[in-house]
Design a protein that fits this description.
Helix content: 55-70%
Number of strands: 4
Largest sheet: 2 strands, antiparallel
Structural class: mainly alpha
Radius of gyration: 17 Å
Order of helices and strands: EEHHHEEHHH
Strand content: 5-15%
């Protein structure tokens, strides 16, 4: 949970929540390694699968102006990965293209023990994301960012029209 100066506790998008989502993505195939940019894009995809054709419904409710989430997601995912690495569930390693992350065997054991309906839905969406984007779309971040940017532009223009109409 993230605490702010006001002592409010934020449950959503905490290091734990984003770390678990990253684990779900990495456990789909223990042989894959993903970098922070890929994991950030895939984290967005896992939560908002409904934004994409032939995908399962979104995991979280469709909120207006959600495309701006992509801007802050990288830091949240990174904090989650650091937490999961400190618990021995993720390992970071250096590759030719930079730092990448992969899940440990312990991560699979932990996730297999979590049977709540939300976790089952999360695991299904993580499997869909990995199956449809790791091998098919090598530049997943660009795909997700472009889709989010298009939505963001539309939402921004709609808000501008709405504001102008209220004058």
């Amino acid at each position: 949970m993230i605490k702010k100066a006001t002592n409010r506790i934020y449950t959503f998008n905490s290091s734990f929540e984003t770390g678990v989502r990253s684990l779900c993505l990495l456990v789909v195939d223990l042989s894959i390694s993903l970098d922070l940019q890929q994991l950030s894009a895939f984290d967005y995809l896992v939560v908002h699968t409904g934004d994409f054709e032939a995908a399962p419904p979104s995991l979280h409710p469709e909120m207006p102006n959600r495309s701006g989430e992509l801007v802050i997601r990288r830091e949240l995912v990174e904090r989650g990965l650091v937490l999961m690495e400190s618990k021995g569930l993720v390992k970071m390693h250096l590759t030719q293209s930079g730092f990448c992350y992969s899940a440990t065997e312990l991560a699979k054991v932990i996730l297999d023990s979590l049977q709540a309906p939300y976790m089952e839905d999360l695991k299904k969406r993580a499997s869909w994301v990995i199956a449809h984007h790791v091998t098919v779309d090598q530049d997943a971040f660009s795909t997700v960012f472009n889709k989010a940017f298009d939505q963001w532009s539309t939402e921004f223009q709609f808000e501008q029209i709405k504001i102008a109409g209220n004058r």
